[in-house]
Amino acid sequence: MEQENKTAVSEFLLLGLSEKPEHQIFLFGLFLPMYLVTIFGNLLIILAIITDSHLHTPMYFFLCNLSFIDIFLSSTTIPKMLVNLWTQSKAIPFAGCLAQMYAFHLFGTMDSFLLAVMAIDRFMAIVHPLHYLAIMSPRVCGLLVVGSWLTTNLQSTVHTSLMAQLTFCAASVLPHFFCDLMPLLKLFCSDTHTNELVIFAFGIIMGISPLTCILLSYICIFWVVFKIPSAQGKWKAFSTCGSHLTVVNLFYGTIFAVYLQPASPTSLKKDKVAALMCGMVIPMLNPFIYSLRNKNMKAALRKLVSKVVPSQS
Q1: CA 95 to chain centroid
Q2: Cα-flanking dihedrals φ and ψ of residue 91, to 5°?
Q3: How many other C-beta atoms are found inside a 10 Å radius of the C-beta of residue 144?
Q4: How much is the pLDDT for 24?
Q5: Are strands 6-7 and 168-169 parallel, antiparallel or unpaired?
Q6: Residue 311 neighbours by CB under 8 Å, 6+ apart
Q7: pLDDT tens digits along 243-267
Q8: Nearest-10 Cα torsion for 234, 238, 240, 243
Q9: Which residues does the UniProt record annotate as the domain G-protein coupled receptors family 1 profile (predicted)?
Q10: One digit per residue, pLDDT tens: the chain, 313 residues?
Q11: Strand partners, 12
Q12: Contact 273, 18 (CB under 8 A)
């Protein structure tokens, strides 16, 4: 009897953010402009950094990578959600579902690793300013980014490989707007004990490692900055960290607000909110945070815009 309830699933149905037809057009009209702002804003940051030689420093190299990741992170889930909202179709192929899960966890985890790498960069710049450029050489910066890519790729590959080997039940309805790991795991008929252990292990390693790195870096930064006698010197040191700290607070604040609460009937809704925040809202806000509070970035953006739209005299 148990065997009869198992089937080879060819596609899944994504229930999305709302099943009410009257909400579909509203959600489409809300998320399409947000997605376009996310893509356009992060592309501007990348182009500004590439075209301005004054921004060819470790801090902006990592920011360029963060913008690159944010474009792909939001593009992993939002375009498919927009298509489903517009066409009223909820289907996603099995292979597409696994690919979406792989990409979301790859770019989402990469986001946290890059925030940790950027914290290390600020630590080196403030605590060891005289040796900063020697320590944070192009080779070291490249190795930090490549190492982050390899680590996050390993996690996503393991999760996807284990998921592909399991047997799904006849029901293939996902109460989510994309193929997330935990909702997908609940559709299995076969034993998921190994998957759960791997998720727990990677969750501890991939979750705690970047956060620990960020906390230790800023503890050292605060310790050094508080020793600076002048208020102007303190402000100058902290001003280089303001944008990064804002993004860190948004990213981890969302995660803590959702996942450090006991399970409840509204847990699924909270999961959707967290996925939207980390997958679209924060990537959309990052360009504004890093440009509005950074004189060098604002100057580079003005220079870039003046090249694209030359002033008429």
Answers
A1: 22
A2: -80, 145
A3: 22
A4: 86
A5: antiparallel
A6: none
A7: 899 999 999 988 887 666 665 666 6
A8: -160
A9: 41-290
A10: 344 445 556 788 888 887 777 788 899 999 999 999 999 999 999 999 999 988 999 999 999 999 999 999 999 999 999 998 898 888 889 889 999 999 999 999 999 999 999 999 999 999 998 999 999 999 999 999 999 999 999 999 999 998 888 777 656 888 888 998 888 888 877 778 888 899 889 888 888 999 999 999 999 999 998 888 888 878 877 788 888 999 999 999 888 876 666 656 666 777 888 889 988 999 999 999 988 778 888 888 888 888 777 654 4
A11: 92
A12: no
Asked if 14 and 187 count as a contact pair (C-beta separation under 8 A), the reply is no
Question: In which residue are the tokens 């939002």 written?
Answer: 78
CA dist 10 → 167, 172, 210, 294, 305 (Å): 12, 9, 37, 49, 47
Residues found in the chain:
313
Q: How far apart are CA 168 and CA 186, in angstroms?
A: 9
Give the CATH number of domain 11-306; options: 3.30.200.20, 3.60.10.10, 3.40.50.300, 1.20.1070.10: 1.20.1070.10
Distance CA 55, CA 204 (A): 35
Residue 51 identity (one-letter amino acid):
T
Query: In this structure, what token pair is assigned to residue 214?
Result: 């960020």
**81-87: which pairs have CB atoms within 8 A and are 24 or more residues apart?**
81/14, 81/16, 81/17, 81/31, 81/177, 81/178, 82/28, 82/31, 82/32, 82/35, 84/14, 84/16, 84/177, 85/16, 85/24, 85/25, 85/27, 85/28, 85/31, 86/24, 86/28
Q: How far apart are CA 305 and CA 256, in angstroms?
A: 38
Answer yes or no: are the C-beta atoms of 28 and 85 closer than 8 Å. Answer: yes
The separation between CA 195 and the C-alpha centre of its own chain, rounded to angstroms, equals 23
pLDDT at 1 (0 to 100): 38
**C-alpha Rg value of the chain to the nearest Å:** 22
| DSSP code for 310 | P
The two tokens of residue 232 are 């102007």
Q: Where are the domains of the chain?
A: 11-306
d(CA 255, CA 259): 6
Which helix or strand (DSSP H or E) is residue 17 part of? Answer: none
